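To: structure subgroup
Subject: Chain for Friday's discussion

All,

I'm putting the inputs and outputs inline so they're searchable in the archive.
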Amino acid sequence: MSESLIEESILSRPKYGQLAIAPGLAHYFVADASGAECVIRVAQTAPKGFMEKVHILYVPTPGENALITALYALGAKRFEHVPTIDAAIAKLGDWLSGSKMGSQLYLAGTEGLIGRAVAKGEECGLDHTAVQCEHRGSLARRVQCVHCKTMIEKVTTQPVKCPSCDLLLLVRDHYSRRLAAFQGVCINAEDPTEEVEIREVFK
């Protein structure tokens, strides 16, 4: 999987590291296809008995089976794969609602998955010191249109057209941790007839 190239000059953006085992009574892993190998790496270096306390939630690429098989073979206490990030976040909320103090949350994959899972962990009362994040894969952004509040997933272009209000949005570098999204502001508000080149920049 590709290594993260997150722009460090964006001060509002979370800092990502590399997943490593931390002391805990339970260990919750959430990953998409980009982050699956991070989970496998941690599991392969884990001490005896660690996997008996591990819960893995995985969002595969449609039609992909090899990584599902590899993750299942790790022997976690609980392993589930779901079709979408929305489903993963909902399931994570269910899991964490029954978790005990001393639980650890490990997130690996694209920024859209990580940001939303961090927010869900905080919502469920998980302390930020118990959350680790490793970014892998696409640099595509999750963007909120500030005009109609629509969330636009997997944005790779600058600017991007809002699918709800049809405005052409400048994708700002400011990242909202509360929303787990970047902000999109109308780029041609003063002259809607102005033509702006759309380029793929977040790959």
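Points worth raising on Friday:
The chain has a mean pLDDT of 91.
Residues 85-97 form the longest helix (13 residues).

D.
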